[in-house]
Write a structure and sequence with these properties.
single chain; 449 residues; alpha/beta; seven-stranded mixed β-sheet; four-stranded mixed β-sheet; 15% strand
């Protein structure tokens, strides 16, 4: 990328440290500067338009440029631009949004706690789980289990829950209380001759074996996404959740469903919890909650979680936890309007209507010799590239292919060598075909590099 000394690209390199980037490489190449968005498209400062095939970061459910969300923010900004929820104070938007989320929850929930990102939601969930263990007189019950390739955020606790090596390397993570069990990715983890059903049972047995090895009395909770997102869009094998949930119930282990990506329609139901008939004690939400027009997240806790926490806060005299922006009135107002749009326009219905074509076109990418597997559900999926065939280091082929996608006008994301697709929920049949036409063309070009 050619950079003028005073260009936005050069100024960005001079002052900003970026997430999930090689800082030295960024000094050389600069950044793609996005200037505006409309529907499923975004445009850079040079006027080039792209299909935003990742809905930003898995999150812009209603698409870019939704005026109703802009207006909702402006109205609330004029009325009450900020207030907090500390020390027995609150405001209307946070109350209304909490009521709405309790109403929408697919399983009975008691209370909502607002945070500002999915990472904070999972971090707070872990703190409250530890707090609850102490309240119950079980100070030894502090270990938590998540899964290899799971993704739960990047704060110290949530990054520990995340089961990806590069989120741990050089950060001195994970925390010792966090354990990881088998990834439910059948193709990469199956044994020779092992059926999908037998693999699902083995995953559950691996989980139980870990619980027994550590001591069931020391395990507080299990964190899991209904469908893994940033770990490569890992769709659980048939029978997986039916095998795993009874293990948690057997040992009285809380189940935290991380719905940060799956929530609000992505899998073809309002929540991934519904898609897989899950029974979580805690749900963490973010991203499509506000279509990321405002930073907001939440955790929903059931009464079994809430009551001991309430008792402990009474004993101490305070729940010593909180964020300045928790339940921010502007963010809450935008989230409320966003949820109205999702419901009024039946975007969950659109996911169901569009997913057969989306999944068909995704599966069609496997005809390219670079692709070893495709997987997905609803309007989320990935095409795994066969880097071993080219003797590439993991991630190199994905990065090259992602660059070709970008050159041809499609923003995807390579998670090592898995190319992800997660467009806004408003996408149409013509736009799905446009997106996958670019992907097919890009894969053909990448195969020749």
């Amino acid at each position: 990328m050619t950079q003028l000394p005073n260009s936005l690209e050069a100024r960005d390199v001079a002052v900003q440290l970026h997430s999930y980037a090689d800082a030295r490489k960024q000094e050389e190449t600069g950044s793609l500067v996005i200037d505006k968005g409309e529907g499923i498209y975004v445009t850079d400062i040079h006027g080039k338009r792209y299909i935003e095939g990742m809905a930003g970061l898995w999150s812009v459910a209603v698409g870019f440029g939704e005026k109703r969300l802009v207006d909702a923010a402006a109205r609330q900004m004029e009325k009450l631009p900020y207030y907090h929820t500390f020390t027995y104070k609150t405001h209307g938007p946070s109350i209304e949004l909490a009521e709405k989320l309790i109403e929408m929850a697919p399983v009975p929930m008691s209370k909502v706690y607002f945070t500002n990102s999915g990472s904070e939601a999972n971090d707070t969930a872990l703190k409250l789980i530890w707090y609850r263990s102490n309240a119950l007189g079980q100070p030894e019950r502090k270990k938590v289990i998540s899964r290899v390739r799971g993704y739960h955020g990047v704060t110290i606790a949530s990054a520990s829950l995340t089961g990806l090596p590069n989120n741990h390397r050089s950060f001195d993570l994970p925390l010792p209380q966090v354990l990881h069990t088998t990834s439910p990715h059948y193709r990469s983890q199956k044994k020779d001759g092992e059926s999908e059903a037998d693999f699902a049972k083995r995953c559950a047995q691996d989980l139980e074996d870990l619980i027994l090895a550590e001591g069931p009395e020391t395990i507080a909770a299990f964190f899991a996404e209904p469908v893994m997102g940033a770990g490569g869009v890992i769709v659980p094998p048939d029978g997986y959740w039916e095998a795993v949930q009874p293990v948690l119930e057997k040992y009285g282990i809380l189940f935290v469903a991380d719905e940060v990506i799956c929530g609000f329609g992505r899998t073809g139901n309002m929540f991934g919890t519904e898609t897989y008939n899950l029974q979580p004690d805690i749900m963490t939400l973010s991203k499509a909650l506000s279509s990321s027009y405002q930073p907001i997240s939440a955790l929903l806790i059931n009464d079994n979680v809430y009551q001991p926490i309430a008792d402990e806060s009474h004993k101490i005299g305070v729940l010593g936890h909180g964020y300045t922006g928790s339940g921010h009135p502007v963010a809450a107002a935008v989230a409320l309007e966003n949820l109205k749009i999702i419901e009024e326009r039946d975007l969950v219905g659109n996911v169901r209507a569009m997913s057969p074509l989306f999944q068909k076109r995704l599966a069609g990418l496997a005809q390219n010799p670079l692709v070893v597997e495709t997987r997905g559900i609803g309007l989320i999926g990935a095409a795994e590239l066969h880097h071993e065939a080219l003797a590439d280091t993991p991630g190199a082929l994905g990065a090259r292919t992602n660059a070709v996608f970008l050159e041809k006008g499609l923003i995807s994301r390579n998670m090592l060598d898995a190319m992800a697709f997660c467009p806004p929920l408003i996408i149409t049949e013509n736009q799905i075909n446009e997106m996958f036409d670019i992907a097919e063309d890009s894969l053909q070009a990448a195969a020749l590099l």
